[in-house]
Amino acid sequence: MSEPTGSLSAGREPVLRVVPAPADINANGHIFGGWVLAQMDIAGGIVAGREVQGPCATVAIETMQFLAPILLRDIISIYGEVERVGRTSIAIRLDVIATRGRGAEEVRVTSGLFTFVALDENHRPRPIVREAPLV
């Protein structure tokens, strides 16, 4: 499950990087799944808000798999990219990579597809306006 440093994150800039605290671990010595989910939601909201140019809210987590545990002292990097854009919603693919052993290895710990809806000033869904590409 682990890969050499650089192979999972090469050429990618994380949306969010965080170090779990001792209070975030469960009785097995792993980080709580809910903590990971919250960090992913924060990162996805950053990407979605930037793309829709305004406020948005999480409406669905279509797929999420826990592939490996996150351990205390891991550095967690969350990478996000737009997978699809609808009329009022946007789906963001999020990958979570743990760097452990003082950077000696990277481990893909989870990934998921989070859907956000763009919101207007009344907190209702609004159309997403995408800028036309420059020619």
Largest sheet: 6 strands, antiparallel
Derived structural class: mainly beta
Distinct helical segment count: 1
State the end-to-end distance.
43 Å
Task: Estimate the strand proportion.
Answer: 35-45%
What value does the Rg take, in angstroms?
Answer: 16 Å
Overall 3D form: globular
Taking pLDDT < 50 over at least 5 consecutive residues as the criterion, the unreliable ranges are 1-6
Overall pLDDT: 89
Total number of strands: 6
Question: Helix and strand succession?
Answer: EEHEEEE
Estimate the helix proportion, in percent.
10-25%
Q: How would you characterize this protein structure?
A:
The chain is mainly beta and 135 residues long. 15% of the residues lie in helices and 40% in strands. The protein contains one helix and six strands. Strands 1, 2, 3, 4, 5 and 6 form a six-stranded antiparallel beta sheet that branches. The longest helix is centred in the first third of the chain and has 20 residues, at 33-52. It starts with a strand and ends in a 17-residue tail after the last strand. The model is unreliable at 1-6 (pLDDT under 50).
